[in-house]
């Protein structure tokens, strides 16, 4: 993998040079991991005019770079004791010592105080904005990244499938969420990709719902959204079920509408399709079914080293899908006081010649009565 990381850093070097900066400081944790592999918390990467340096406050428990003699294209590791200051400040000082006239920084990741500290540490160096250059490099995933996400999807599906075989009535949302996260780890995940959502009854379908002590009852909609983190890569799945022998008519109507919208969104995931078009076709289905009021601002988003990354599938999003870009499609409708439906999948954009979008989460989307 060291060659992969080196190639990624080389692409970023080229972009910085073209923009007029001979040095760049990468501080966003996911971006540092993308360029170097697993690193200690708080580490930053300096792409310098003379050398690349990974600055950390502790020695990695496992080498983030390849074993054996150092390669000429590998960053040097510089350990700065935590009590002595900020790794980003130490990196800025090193850039100045190496003769950098400008330093591109991730302004969207830096606090005002940290930006000022960098400026003070290297007063002769002009700070420029690197923007979201690394995030743009991360958009298209390689085979190894998608393989990790595929495994993460399998782990999430497995944990969810096992839970559905247990008794649910009478158990609290919080209890079920904790059990799902335990099952993820038991099956080999590094942890949950995000706080697990379990929402029952009037809470079902509510976006970002935090599990409560509300107990699952007969007749409830039950919405579950979870994800697994596997080797840093994440995958998300969400489903809605009915508790009891059979769903009510209104539950079937609502579920069918959300399912049709989610299917339209999935089928639109083709290279060259505008982000906003994927959002539009999904919303059109729900609006035509009479559920257009109060729809969420985002139909889906990119996923990878972070559970919520570029691109965004929204009405105002600019840009078009590329092949090998993993995204979620997760429409939902919540009816206040009654509950609602959410269906989430993670897919990889593929051309029609390759079979179309690749589904990474395969738990059935049939409306199950549990």
Automatic annotation (TrEMBL):
Per the record, a Pfam family?
Peptidase_M24
> What does the record give under GO molecular function?
aminopeptidase activity
In terms of superkingdom, the source organism counts as Bacteria
Mind telling me what this protein is named? Aminopeptidase P family protein
Q: Which UniProt keywords apply?
A: Aminopeptidase, Hydrolase, Protease
- PANTHER family reported in the protein's UniProt record: AMINOPEPTIDASE, CYTOPLASMIC PEPTIDASE PEPQ-RELATED
Gene3D superfamilies given in the database record: Creatinase/methionine aminopeptidase superfamily, Creatinase/prolidase N-terminal domain
**Coiled-coil features, chain-numbered ranges:** none
The Creatinase N-terminal domain covers 8-140
Organism from which the protein derives: Streptomyces asiaticus subsp. ignotus
Q: Peptidase M24 domain location, by residue? A: 148-350
